[in-house]
Write a structure and sequence with these properties.
globular, Arc Repressor Mutant, subunit A, mainly alpha
């Protein structure tokens, strides 16, 4: 079956929207409920504040995450998935199930151009 540009382009746009290293993990964490910046950062070991800020801004710009700032001292900002972001959760869950079911095959074929196995394995268990 040949895929038309009309079918593939929306898929490519969607994948590009969530392709950065931390975006799927942000979405999965917010799928558990509203969180503050520090809560997200603690849940996502290894992400720097600068990178997390960029990921959240991108997801907000794309309409997947909403940011609510409260006029309080100290300032309080909360992040939550929008209805559009929430609608992505079942898709990510299906992708997770596929990745787990095919993990042996994926790891077997996961090599760098020079033939060495990838050193870093994405932790899909955190997104379940």
């Amino acid at each position: 079956m040949a895929y038309s540009t009309k079918l593939v382009c929306p898929i490519q746009r969607t994948v590009a929207m969530i392709a950065d290293k931390w975006k799927v993990i942000v979405i999965a964490n917010l799928g558990e409920g509203t969180k503050r910046f520090r809560e997200l950062q603690r849940a996502m070991q290894g992400v720097t504040p600068k990178v997390l800020t960029r990921q959240l801004r991108d997801l907000e710009h794309d309409g997947l995450v909403s940011r609510k700032a409260y006029a309080e001292v100290p300032p309080r900002v909360e992040y939550t998935l929008t209805p559009l972001g929430r609608s992505l959760l079942p898709v990510l869950q299906q992708l997770h199930h596929w990745a787990v079911a095919n993990s042996d095959s994926l790891l077997k074929h996961s090599t760098t151009p020079d033939g060495e196995a990838e050193a870093e394995e994405a932790s899909l268990e955190q997104t379940a």
